[in-house]
Predict the structure.
Amino acid sequence: MTDFRTFVLKLVAAFGAPWLLLIVWPSISYQSLAPIAYNKDKGDELDGAYMFPMSSVNHSGATIYAQEGCAQCHSQMIRPPQMGLDAWRKGWGQDQSDRPAEPTRATVLRDYVGEKYAYLGVSRIGPDLANAGYRFENATQVHLHLYEPKAVNPWSTMPSYKHLYIVRKQQGPDSTKALPLVGTAYAPRDGFEVVPTPEAEQLAAYILSLKRDYPIPGSKALAAAPAKK
Amino acid sequence: MQNEASTADQNADNLRRAAIDRSVKGPVLFLFTNAAFWLMASTLMGFIAAVKLVSPGFMDWGSWLTYGRLQPAHIDALVYGWGIQAGLGVALWLMARRTAVVLKGGQGTLITLGVLWNIAVTVGIFGILGGGNRSIEWLEFPQGVWPVMLGIFVVYAFKIVSMAAKPDRTEGFMVSTWYILAACLFFPWIFITANSLLNNMELGALGAAINSWYVHGVILLFFVPIGVGSAYYFIPKITGQPIHSAQLAQMGFWMLVILGGWTGMQRYIGGPLPAWMPSIGAMAGVLLLIPVGVVGLNHHLTTLGQHSQVGSSPTLRFTFFGALFYPVSGLVLALLSASWSGMALQFTHAWYGYQIVAVYGFFSMCVFGAIYYIVPRLAGCEWLSVRLIRNHFWFSVYGIGTIVVTSVVGGIQHGGGLNDVANWNSSFWGVVMNSRPYISARAVAWALILWSNFWFLIHLMLMVAGLGRRSSAPTLLSHDHEDLPVTEGAKA
């Protein structure tokens, strides 16, 4: 009997330590994460403080992102340059050109403040989306990719999210929302058009809002302010 | 074990064992049968998901079966439908045998709760497929499901733990008992922590880290203890040799318990977390090689000289190979954790390989071994067909071996495609193309496993229905259905 009691106490102690130090305490202290002020003496070019740019993330779009399981194949974090190719990969940062002048900034804890849960991702079967907001110029591009990925990259193994779109009879002149599929192999029948559902629009708004490279205080090399889109 | 006891003592022992077996028969057989059903469902979904990864147009039947929903449903069916359910069955029987406690009453409640568990898992799986996926790994089920699952688990765990608290046989407080107690205590603890934090608090990137801790915690502090505990029971039981070293057993257990809780956050090494968190996870993940190696060594030394029985006893054969997969899973975890290899394998197919080698290769093989031993004693009849058992064994070993090898090797190539500096401006075309042969092999392997699991389920259902062989001798693999006296321990 006493054997049993000491045994259970030992178990509780062995697991309680990591539970408190690794899980409970960081979760509590995360709730009071404060903005950091920029400091011109350290080379920052901005005034004020780094204020959690992702706090205005599109939450209903994030729910669709979760529901469709996008995180199974897409990550949302950039590792520092010494830890992989993330920072230099084409299209993973703000600069979409072949040879970006600067590596993409590694993501930090404060970049995700405001998100209830950050979908850092399960695997990279597709490209990282931490800065996907720069990758697409507008919602139509995102919709085209979601509706028929093969129309963008013929070799893509991304599934089509047709169920987020409605194929409907054209009413009057072309709807401004209709996807520009005419002339492609994926165009609907004559007289029909493909328009996004509200879910698809939320998802596109979420993806366009993913921009996690705002300058953080104290990093001179990364102090250039992002171009306003 | 009772070789030297007199015949009268042996008869008394056999009667006592029979009473214990009878008292847990209903719940244990219920859990095993339903778990086997979920295993088959998970295997089927694993096959379809693997095909879809190569050819997304396959079975393009609308939103339900897209890869992003099917893959988590596949893993969750494996974890909650099969793994935890079958694990609880093994734990309940093993603990009753270790402590010699006859379960008095409550069987009806346990079976009702078992029904509820299966309803909860069904709601969860259909929830994911139907659009309730929360994309929190291993916790994708819609929100309402987890309190129900927690409550059911706690009742089962309470029954099991109270057997150990008031045993009828104190010398039974041994290695298997420790492991099962640990599993019963830690799973609810991890489960309630992860769910209450991730559902109720805004945690951003820290949420993903806690999620990863949860997944590793369930593997290392539930699946591993049940698997190892079962191996520590059946290997000595069938070889007739005591556990080789008590010190090694102690060390293997306590190091696992101490390190297990620190593991997990290395998954997001280089990610948006305070650097000490993934670092400590990486350290624990590599240090776990010690307890894993120690347990592997102890099992090896216990089996030494009795390897011929691996050929004849289905239980020992499955358990032995499960116990072999334990060091393999430890090695894969260390590769994923160590910073040099972990960064190369981060976000690659190797992660899938780890989940499968831990939950299927190691845990499930040990549980299969346990099922082949337990079910005849509860159902009162012997396994019908040696061929079906062999079929189950070989397809499982080769199938799982294929999945693990292709996932890890494919993961190395995948990691190269992601991280090789030569690929800095290449598209994902190369990554997609290079993964194809590995994923195709995975699909073929799941198809083979599906075949063997289908027959396992049929075989098990026939046994539970009492349609097994009527014989006083167990079904052994070395000779077909001969009623010879055997050393496996007389059937009670």
